[in-house]
Structure formats: structure tokens, C-alpha cells
Specification:
This protein has helices at residues 6-40, 50-56, 59-104, 113-133. The two termini are 14 Å apart. It is mainly α.
Length: 135
């Protein structure tokens, strides 16, 4: 964004949409496979949770599922953190746009505290955009 490379951003968004679609498809396949597994073990209609599945598996498979569950929880926590950073970036970007518009078309207000405050927010936002993208 800092480099004004809109083509790279567009390519990133297209790639992101492909990943979202693939994740959705994989999740549907997972739901189907768990449903078939539960039905094959006489537990059709039971909730398709890791707990229900581990009741039907041996100790080795239960351990593997527990490790995978822990990894999944870690990944979800990382995604939540990144989502929070992205929300902050969006908020700061909107502030930047607002300040830019105010500078380009002032409302006949004297140059006072509020304008200085908004310019400081603008400087802070611009300095932190690179920090967030480097994560």
C-alpha cells in the first residue's frame, strides 16, 4: 500500500478469495467424512465434535487428534490477532482519508487544536502502516 502497488493488492485479494473458497470446500469435505465415520460406528446424528470422534478412536488416534486440536486453536488465535491488527489498519486508513479530505477541502475553520490533533493522528497512522505490514 505504501508503494501504491494496486496491482499487487488486487492479486493478493484474488489469491485470498481462492484460499477462502478452498477452506470452505475442505470444511465441507471434513463434515461429510466425520458424518460418515460416525454413521459407520453407530453414532449417526451425534454432534460432529472432536470429543465424539475421540470416543470412537484408539489411544494413538486420540493423541494425534488432541495435537491437531491444539495446533488448530493456536492458528485460530494467530488469525484473531492478525484480524485485530487489520481492523486497526482499516480504522487508521479511514482516519487518514478523513484527514486528507479535510486538508484538501477545509471547512473555513481556523487552524486550531483539532486540526493539529488530526495531523498528529495522520503522522502516527502513516508511521505504523509499515509496522503492521511487516508482520
Amino acid at each position: 500500500m505504501k508503494a501504491n502497488d494496486t496491482e499487487a493488492i488486487t492479486a493478493l485479494l484474488i489469491s485470498e478469495q481462492k484460499h477462502i473458497k478452498a477452506i470452505g470446500q475442505t470444511d465441507k469435505e471434513r463434515e461429510r467424512a466425520v458424518g460418515e465415520f460416525l454413521a459407520a460406528n453407530g453414532m449417526a446424528g451425534q454432534p460432529a465434535s472432536i470429543h465424539t470422534v475421540t470416543e470412537l478412536t484408539g489411544p494413538e488416534d486420540t493423541e494425534v487428534l488432541a495435537m491437531l486440536k491444539a495446533e488448530l486453536i493456536d492458528e485460530v488465535a494467530k488469525l484473531k490477532e492478525r484480524n485485530g491488527l487489520n481492523q486497526q489498519l482499516i480504522y487508521q486508513s479511514l482516519q487518514f482519508i478523513s484527514v486528507s479530505l479535510d486538508i484538501l477541502r477545509p471547512r473555513n475553520q481556523p487552524f486550531g487544536f483539532q486540526t493539529v490533533f488530526m495531523l498528529n493522528i495522520f503522522k502516527f497512522s502513516v508511521n505504523n502502516i509499515g509496522l503492521i505490514f511487516s508482520l
